[in-house]
Amino acid sequence: MHKIITCIFLLLGSHAHAYDFQKIADKHILPVYQELHEKTSALDKLAQQRCDKNSLQEKSKAAFIAWQGAQHIRFGPVQFLSREHRFAFWPDKRGVVGKQLNALMQDEKLVADDFDLTQKSVALQGFSALERLLYSDDDLNDKSCILVKAITNNLNNMSKGIVEDWVAGKDPYLKYFVNPNSKNLIFKNEIELASQILNSLFTQLELVIKQKIELPLGSGIEKARSKSAEAWRSKSALQAIHANISASHEMYRSAFSSELVDDPLQSEIEVSFKNAFSLLEQIEMPLAEAVKNIEQRERVEALRDQVSSIKNLISRDMASKLQLSLGFNSLDGD
Fold it and tell me: 92 and 212 share a domain?
């Protein structure tokens, strides 16, 4: 009887996973959002002091890349008040940002004392609108400076709000994240929470493949769509992709790598990430230009295929091994 019980325990134990959600939060999620807050705070401080395009471009790009490093976290306070859409309105297939920016610049309410950007369209509130203002051919004037300052202040307030919602107050989100259980109002068990993290990883990798790489690639070199590249004006598309993949790698390591110790799959995933970073380094011009260059386009296509390999290893092989479910992802229907 003792041997039977021991065998049952070993069988059950082979499928048991001890996720350390406190560590995931402390070592990955919270530092990511703290970095975002630091970068948006520095950007806003400069914007309020000096509304100058040349001065603001560097800090704007740094804050944008910090957002790209947080974009893979698709649950929690970033979803409160539609923050994730207000940080960046992209892809913008219908040119909504440009149309609404032009309309707002003609609106006298912009210069009113009670102008409130948070009451305007999400397309006007974040990095997508800010990039247009800072990288346009036109100089900043009194009106556009009002909007620049409103956007940077909004970005800073949102990033600060995310950090506070995670850790501060009587009911911080961290309380629910670190202790999934049957009485938890958000996460009823560890598998549910681990599956949510997996879903976030899958969605981010899918976003990189389908929208950040395939959109500008188009159906062929003659139909490449350079201006479909994210942040093409600031030539930041590849930096954004690098930040996306790097953050996904760190999330995988924080949440799942320890569950695959001594499993060949762990090595496969690490090699796939390494290959993706290597391919990124081989693309020698901005993405908007690379998709129209024969040699560079091949490298972009190879990068897409490599990210697809990472996605499959994580969402198919790892998910099956850890008995996790993907469920719905926020890109469904796009």
Answer: no
Of the candidates 227, 220, 63, the one whose C-alpha atom is nearest the C-alpha of residue 154 is 63
If asked whether residues 107 and 235 sit together in one domain, one would say no
- Length in residues, the chain: 334
CA-to-CA distance for 37 and 39, rounded, in angstroms? 5
Cis peptide before 31 (omega within 30 of 0): no
Q: Are residues 130 and 241 in the same domain?
A: no
**How far apart are the C-alpha atoms of 68 and 180, rounded to whole Å?**
27
Domain housing 251: 190-322
Its sign, for the CA torsion 93, 214, 281, 226, is negative
Question: Quick one: which of 171, 130, 119 has its CA closest to 43?
Answer: 130
Residue where one domain finishes, among candidates 147, 177, 207 = 177
Stated as kind and residue range, the H or E segment containing 235 is none
Mean pLDDT by 10 residues, the chain (334 residues): 43 61 98 98 98 96 98 98 97 96 95 96 98 95 97 98 97 98 97 98 98 98 97 98 98 97 97 98 98 98 98 98 83 53
Does residue 329 lie within any of the structural domains? Answer: no
